[in-house]
Design goal:
171 residues, alpha+beta, four-stranded antiparallel beta sheet
Length: 171
């Protein structure tokens, strides 16, 4: 942004912030759609997003699918998140272990809260895997783009969760 006036830099920052916000909103809608519906193609996903007010190109959808860690189910070819299961809690626990091993980069307890860091675009799938696994220590999760805030019932439960997930992730 060399050679730009202060007003131009400010406008550029606003535009960049808006793009990041729109990407996060679009990806949240994508996660909602694949959880609620059998989306089997990028074109079908693009149409459903358009119905929700989001315009997206095939290249953008490909990046979103990659960023969110979506996979296609073998049975019907529908997109699913790493945390989604049609089986029992054992399946959800196995999916959680896989998501933790693949996505978790940092974890730290803060009283009864746990802060988790992932690579960009990986926090939502990991937060969903945590939610689907019904981990008894977890009251709730808030997932951003690369950070997850986990709320536990007590500092002791937060410490136990951190120890278990660090072990699973090899941290």
């Amino acid at each position: 942004m060399i050679g730009l006036g202060l007003d131009q830099v400010f406008i550029q920052c606003i535009l960049i912030s808006r793009c990041i916000f729109m990407k996060a909103r679009r990806q949240a809608v994508i996660l909602e759609l694949v959880e609620r519906e059998d989306i089997t193609s990028q074109e079908q996903l693009r149409q459903r997003l358009k119905e929700r007010g989001f315009e997206a190109t095939q290249a953008t959808l490909s990046r979103d699918i990659r960023d969110l860690g979506l996979v296609k189910r073998a049975a019907d070819g529908a997109y699913r998140t790493p945390g989604s299961t049609e089986g029992d809690r054992l399946d959800a626990a196995a999916v959680l272990d896989q998501a933790v091993a693949e996505f978790l980069r940092f974890i730290e307890p803060v009283q009864q809260l746990v802060v988790m860091k992932t690579d960009v675009g990986r926090a939502q799938p990991l937060a969903l895997a945590l939610d689907n696994a019904d981990v008894p220590e977890i009251v709730g999760t808030i997932g951003g783009d690369d950070t997850i805030l986990v709320i536990c019932r007590s500092p002791e439960e937060a410490a136990a969760l951190v120890a278990r997930l660090r072990n699973t992730a090899g941290l």
